[in-house]
TrEMBL record:
<dbReference type="GO" id="GO:0000712">
    <property type="term" value="P:resolution of meiotic recombination intermediates"/>
</dbReference>
<dbReference type="GO" id="GO:0031297">
    <property type="term" value="P:replication fork processing"/>
</dbReference>
<dbReference type="GO" id="GO:0006281">
    <property type="term" value="P:DNA repair"/>
</dbReference>
<comment type="similarity">
    <text>Belongs to the CENP-X/MHF2 family.</text>
</comment>
<keyword id="KW-0227">DNA damage</keyword>
<dbReference type="Pfam" id="PF09415">
    <property type="entry name" value="CENP-X"/>
</dbReference>
<keyword id="KW-0539">Nucleus</keyword>
<feature type="region of interest" description="Disordered">
    <location>
        <begin position="1"/>
        <end position="62"/>
    </location>
</feature>
<protein>
    <recommendedName>
        <fullName>Centromere protein X</fullName>
    </recommendedName>
</protein>
<dbReference type="GO" id="GO:0051382">
    <property type="term" value="P:kinetochore assembly"/>
</dbReference>
<dbReference type="GO" id="GO:0003677">
    <property type="term" value="F:DNA binding"/>
</dbReference>
<keyword id="KW-0234">DNA repair</keyword>
<dbReference type="GO" id="GO:0071821">
    <property type="term" value="C:FANCM-MHF complex"/>
</dbReference>
<feature type="compositionally biased region" description="Low complexity">
    <location>
        <begin position="1"/>
        <end position="23"/>
    </location>
</feature>
<keyword id="KW-0238">DNA-binding</keyword>
<dbReference type="InterPro" id="IPR018552">
    <property type="entry name" value="CENP-X"/>
</dbReference>
Length: 129
């Protein structure tokens, strides 16, 4: 008879290691594993993570709005734009708007931004981009 390739103790340790990501020691533990380790703070941790994810999601100009704005300035009614081109313009506009806000905020340094603050940085921003 052929010898067995592994004992039951080896198989048990291997299978228990595969189910727990913490045994490997790489990266942050998953939210479920953190919740198991501290059940009283599990809900709080998940809530904080959800809030961080919402903050990290960047707002962008809706594709339909951008398409509508572009079509308003096309000379010919028959001019079309592909989805890829629309995506490229959307990325450019996103960068443009974020840079304008960042420059205006740096100029202002305190308080709320006004339209005039954005108008001050617009000429140089247009030349830069």
């Amino acid at each position: 008879m052929a010898p067995k390739q592994g004992t039951s103790a080896q198989r048990t340790s291997t299978s228990s290691r595969g189910s727990s990501g913490a045994a490997r020691g790489r990266g942050r533990p998953r939210a479920a594993e953190r919740a198991e380790s501290s059940p009283s703070h599990g809900a709080e941790v998940e809530q904080v993570e959800d809030e961080r994810e919402e903050e990290n999601q960047q707002k962008t100009i809706p594709a339909e709005l951008l398409t509508r704005l572009l079509h308003e300035f096309f000379e010919s009614e028959s001019t079309r734009i592909t989805k890829d081109a629309n995506g490229a313009v959307a990325k450019y506009m996103d960068i443009f708007v974020r840079e304008a806000i960042a420059r205006a905020a740096a100029e202002r340094e305190a308080g709320f931004l006004e339209v005039e603050d954005l108008e001050k940085v617009a000429p140089q921003l247009l030349l830069d981009l």
